[in-house]
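Budget justification aside, the reviewers requested a transparent look at the raw inputs and outputs of the sequence design task funded under Objective 1. We therefore reproduce one unedited record. The lines immediately below are the structure tokens for a 251-residue chain.
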């Protein structure tokens, strides 16, 4: 008997930006999208856009910093589907923009860790049991080249002189979570990988999207490409990697 159940993909923070583009692209490939948004109006609008294009998506109201919300959504997915193929931890914030670490508020750093790191870890912990029921489970953590310790400490890297302690350390911590869960789940059906979308034209970090796109900034399609590639690869044979469109990145 063939397995007819759809590939089920949950994406956090997917009502706009790279998350939405990933949702639309994977829906076009026939995946059933559980579109995470913490805003009912924006979330519904995003789901409607995918449905109007003729593809499958449904809304999960989900704030990744709220454990009650995460547990409620886990129950919903369990009751409705009983499994999850792919979890894409995309929700992210950047509140410190090249500020001196000497004076940066630790409250700002805590907020960034709350979404970027603790949100990611909480989602993984909650959904592992459902991912284990997939034929081939995937966890994709949307990280950043700004979280690469190797690049930040390499005088020849363009990231050497970047200083956003809160955002960078929270993404470095995301990468550590990727390595840890990849090893812990290596004997299961689940792979865990980090992806760097690259500098992308979204509203991220408070960017005004009405402003002209600076040189070197990618489109959202380019930003979502490597995430979509991993999420739609039937082989699912990468585990514990950190990649971008151009290939591997140093941790
Ligand atoms: N754009 C870039 O240049 C770039 C580069 C490298 C990595 N990244 C990473 O790519 C990911 C997506 O970024 P983006 O550029 O698409 O940014 P974006 O347009 O600002 O989208 C971020 C999404 O995350 C959601 N979010 C924030 N806090 C959340 C929470 N507590 N719970 C659930 N959702 C939450 C936002 O929802 P609200 O509207 O409700 O806040 C929004 O839907 C992030 O992880 C970011 O770090 C981006």
């Amino acid at each position: 008997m063939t397995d007819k159940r759809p590939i089920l993909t949950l994406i956090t923070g997917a009502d706009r930006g790279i998350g939405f583009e990933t949702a639309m692209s994977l829906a076009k490939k026939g995946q059933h999208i559980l579109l995470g948004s913490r805003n009912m109006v924006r979330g519904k609008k995003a789901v409607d856009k995918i449905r109007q294009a003729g593809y499958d998506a449904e809304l999960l109201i989900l704030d990744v910093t709220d454990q009650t919300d995460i547990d409620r959504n886990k129950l919903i997915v369990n009751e409705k589907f009983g499994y999850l193929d792919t979890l894409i931890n995309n929700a992210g914030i950047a509140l410190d923009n090249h500020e001196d670490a000497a004076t940066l508020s630790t409250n700002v750093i805590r907020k960034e860790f709350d979404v970027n790191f603790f949100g990611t870890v909480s989602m993984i912990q909650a959904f592992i049991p459902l991912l284990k029921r997939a034929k081939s489970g995937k966890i994709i953590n949307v990280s950043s080249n700004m979280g690469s310790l190797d690049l930040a400490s390499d005088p020849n890297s363009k990231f050497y002189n970047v200083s956003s302690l809160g955002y960078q350390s929270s993404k470095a911590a995301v990468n550590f979570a990727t390595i840890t869960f990849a090893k812990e789940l290596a004997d299961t059906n689940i792979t865990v990988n980090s992806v760097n979308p690259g500098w992308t034209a979204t509203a991220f970090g408070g960017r005004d999207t009405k402003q002209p796109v600076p040189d070197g900034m990618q489109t959202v399609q380019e930003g979502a490409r490597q995430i979509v590639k991993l999420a739609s690869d039937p082989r699912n044979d990468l585990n514990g990697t950190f990649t971008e469109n151009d290939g591997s990145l140093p941790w």
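The pocket of NAP is lined by residues 12-13, 15-19, 38-39, 62-65, 90-93, 115, 119, 142, 144, 196-197, 199-200, 202-204 (CB under 6 Å). The beta strands are 8-11, 32-37, 57-61, 86-89, 137-142, 190-195, 242-244, 247-248. Computational costs for records of this kind are itemized in the attached budget.
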